[in-house]
Amino acid sequence: MSIGGKIALFLGGTLFGTAGLRILSGKDARRVYAHTAAAVLRCRDEVMKHVELVQEGCSDILADAKQINADREKAAEAEFIEDGAEESADTEESADK
Hints:
The chain is mainly α. It has one domain (3-96). It contains two helices and no strands.
């Protein structure tokens, strides 16, 4: 491409960009931007409501899971104590014979 072609492309791009900026900065365009921004904000609020609901549900599930693990731990500890008591009783009976 020759220098004249490059200069023509540069000038065309500059002209097109300037015209685009004028179009984008018009009153109608601003109105569209404002409505779009308002829609995005409404959407964000709705998404945050759903996120809060999911977080509440997850925290309930986490609390239930912790309770289940605590109950299982207590049951395992009680079983361990019972097994230890049976083993010591068996050991004492063997020693008595």
